[in-house]
């Protein structure tokens, strides 16, 4: 199946480069290009691509607002949005993640990771570059923790393991490989964790892992929070 993509970036050279990278893959098709947020919203609404690849900073309506309108809370039929940026984590990046972005990459992530993120988003999965996840947690580390939601039913040991890998930016396929379980089993565990936490996406799972001190920016595993 061909994955239909709209690419939105205000820099002509960057946009052309993204289109060229995606164009060499026979199962990927760029069906539209936008140089600003309003055009991205218009194209995405009219064309309903499988994935919208959007820059975080664009004139007019920025990538955060584009993401919120197409994939945010209350959207009846949310679109798969992958956000890309040249910037490290800042308020725009955090805003995009909370707005419902299914994937997040820095523009220097490389073609392979970009294609992986698009495939993951199209399949209902998500991919957040591991370095982005670490920086996200590092940013939170400098702030007082929020009051995270506590599940009525505690997470099982296996759910904690799956949560650890989700928070580290692993895809479902990578989690299945690391834990030696089937892909359907991974999806079932993630769905269970999301239900218990009332989370909308994997980004919220990663944030919850930090908020409950299960994961720190300098650690690679999830562990029970301190008493």
TrEMBL record:
RNA-binding among keywords = no
Gene source species: Pedococcus aerophilus
Superkingdom of source: Bacteria
Q: List, for all copies, the residue spans of the domain called HTH luxR-type.
A: 148-213
Q: What is the lineage of its organism?
A: Bacteria, Bacillati, Actinomycetota, Actinomycetes, Micrococcales
The name under which this protein is listed is Response regulator transcription factor
Where 4-aspartylphosphate occurs along the chain? 55
**Residues in domain Response regulatory?**
4-122
Q: Which InterPro entries match?
A: CheY-like_superfamily (IPR011006), NreC/VraR/RcsB-like_REC (IPR058245), Sig_transdc_resp-reg_C-effctor (IPR016032), Sig_transdc_resp-reg_receiver (IPR001789), Tscrpt_reg_LuxR_C (IPR000792), WalR-like (IPR039420)
């Amino acid at each position: 199946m061909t994955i239909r993509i709209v690419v939105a970036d205000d820099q002509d050279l960057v946009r052309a480069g993204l289109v060229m990278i995606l164009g060499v893959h026979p199962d990927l098709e760029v069906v539209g290009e936008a140089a600003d947020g309003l055009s991205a919203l218009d194209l995405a609404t009219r064309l309903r691509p499988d994935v919208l690849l959007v820059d975080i900073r664009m004139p007019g309506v920025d990538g955060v607002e584009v993401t919120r309108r197409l994939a945010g809370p209350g959207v009846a039929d949310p679109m798969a949005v992958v956000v890309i940026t040249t910037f490290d984590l800042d308020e725009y990046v955090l805003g995009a993640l909370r707005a419902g972005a299914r994937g997040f990459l820095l523009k220097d992530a490389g073609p392979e990771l970009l294609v992986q993120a698009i495939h993951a988003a199209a399949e209902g999965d998500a991919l957040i570059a591991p370095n982005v996840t670490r920086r996200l947690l590092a940013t939170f580390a400098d702030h007082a923790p929020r009051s995270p939601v506590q599940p009525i039913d505690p997470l099982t040991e296996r759910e904690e393991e799956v949560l650890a890998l989700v928070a580290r930016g692993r895809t479902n396929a990578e989690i299945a490989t690391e834990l030696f379980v089937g892909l359907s089993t991974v999806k079932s565990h993630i769905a269970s964790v999301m239900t218990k936490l009332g989370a909308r996406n994997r980004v919220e799972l990663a944030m919850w892992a930090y908020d409950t001190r299960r994961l720190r920016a300098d650690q690679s595993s999830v562990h029970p929070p301190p008493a």
